[in-house]
Fold this sequence. Notes:
Elements lengths: L6 E3 L5 E3 H4 L2 H38 L8 H4 L7 H8 L1 H33 L3 H16 L2 H12 L4 H8 L7 H4 L1 H25 L4 H9 L4 H12 L1 H15 L4 H6 L11 H11 L3 H31 L1
Antiparallel strand pairs: 1-2
Helix pairs in contact: 2-16, 4-16, 5-10, 5-13, 6-10, 7-10, 10-13, 11-12, 13-16, 15-16
Amino acid sequence: MGASGDLERGGGGLSRPRAERSGGPGRTWSRAARWAVPMGPALFLLLAFFAGPILWTVWASLTDAALTGARAARTDFVGVANFERLLTDVRFRDATILTALFLIGSVFGQTVLGLVLALLTRARHGAVRAAVGAIVVGAWVVPEVVAGFVWYAFLEREGTLNAILGFLGAGEQNWLFTAPLLAVILANVWKGTAFSMMTYSAGLSEVPDDLEEAARVDGASPFQVLWHVVLPLLRRTLATTLLLITLQTVQVFTLIFVMTSGGPGARSTTLPLLMYQEALRMGDLGYGTAIALALLVVAGLFSIVYVRMLGKEERR
């Protein structure tokens, strides 16, 4: 073809360049503009409200930024000093352990209780499902600050639980002092179970009834039907729900702050509360944002695990 490779034969034996036939650079820019103009506002909002705060957090974690005092007027770059401090900070280590325990207890409780409620209401009358759904969803839509006050009033020394135990002749105790982490886990499970119940109910509605009936005819017990027929068909729903519950739970702040404020001492101080204490109470923005990035890494690791689980399900 030689040099004529860039030419095409037109009508009447004339040749014209391929770039001219395809519209040339002008047409390419026109197509790009038609794509960019509608997407421009969305990209701007994404950068401004998602990427922007993350980039600012990364920058602040590498400085000694402060809210008040002499350092507030002058911010110096300190590199990875804040992250080196994390590695030796006993409070950060304890807060990480408490965050893991709070996350495991809350995710396990919401998953199991939500699945049990979804299974129990699956074959019930519509009125029963509506009543149970209204009660559980009512707890879910309550603001965290209200839920925190409700559980504080229920578990405090002179609260409802001790009144019931006293009526039954059992011993009373200050539950928010003796078992603060368990108290906030129970409150979070109570508030968040509705979400998992609704997702599992939606997943169960897609399970074919004939498969379960065939398993029962073959002599399978109810537990065997659940384990070998129902749960395998809910794998994608389980993985998606676990991901969303984990991301919601790892950032819980208001509920714990209202109930215990991270106490007594630091026995219920999770990473979000430690970040608040360092950044806003102590005014150390640089160290507080370093804790925030550590929390972001924790959430990201869980997200990667769940996304890989979903990817495996799609390839099956």
